[in-house]
Amino acid sequence: MAVVKATEKDIDLLARLLRAEAEGEGKLGMLLVGNVGINRVRVNCSDFTQVRTIPEMVYQPHAFEAVTHGYFYQRPRESERRLARKVINGKRYWPAKYSLWYFRPPGDCPTTWYGQPLVDRYKLHCFYEPTGEECEGVYSTF
Fold it and tell me: CA 57, CA 3: separation in Å to the nearest integer?
């Protein structure tokens, strides 16, 4: 059962994001990006208080390099749609299980990113989850 509302257009949009942001990191890398995105839609904290839908999450200003810098042009394939559906239906994967941020540094992962602690790295991306009570909703179960 979906943890956020999603139309077929939303699934395609999320699938395009997964492909643009993490195609080179394989299926798990794309699932991790999807987890971060769905977590952002689900929580009501930090930079995500006005993000309630997949399009709002994808097009949030400065949120995703692929959208900002024009790598977001490829059509989704059925394989990415399947991955998008998995995260929309609540499948979570470590280290993005509770993460709200990730990025790809040129070297080692900083221990914090905008004050949030590093969870771990998967291939080239570093994942960060919130601390404190402000974003405790990300830790809730579905």
Answer: 15
